[in-house]
Amino acid sequence: MLRHIVMIQFKDGKAKDVEASKLKMMLENLKSEIPSLFTMEVGLNINTKPSAFDLVLTADFENEMGLNAYRIHPAHKEVLDYLKKVVEKTAVVDYIV
Asked: What is the pLDDT of residues 22-34, one digit of tens each?
């Protein structure tokens, strides 16, 4: 099993909460569209520290091949296009469970 974790920090702005909610919904919709995606959990941050990220995604795949299929899937690419507009910084970790 391969776990994929992404932490996202949005650009500062008045619509930050709206963007986070929209991205959460977009990501959760991927569960029904991408067969190699076993499980996914998306959480919105409640920590108010300046160093905190705004959203975290945890997704599980059978193996690296499944993760790669997710990365190139058209539905995932739509999410990436949205991210390019609203994200300040990301951090990613992929590891074997």
From this structure: 999 999 999 999 9
Asked whether residue 96 is domain-assigned, the answer is no
58, containing H or E segment = strand 55-61
**Residue 25 falls in which region: left (phi positive, over 0), alpha (psi -120 to 50) or beta:** alpha
What size, in residues, is the chain? 97
Q: The domain containing residue 83 runs over which residues?
A: 2-55+63-88
Instruction: Give how many domains the chain has, as a whole number.
Output: 1
pLDDT category of residue 16 using cuts at 50, 70 and 90: confident
> Cα dist. 86→32, 38, 54, 61 in Å?
24, 27, 12, 26
Tell me if 73 sits within 8 A of 34, measured CB to CB.
yes
Tell me the CATH number at 12: 3.30.70.100
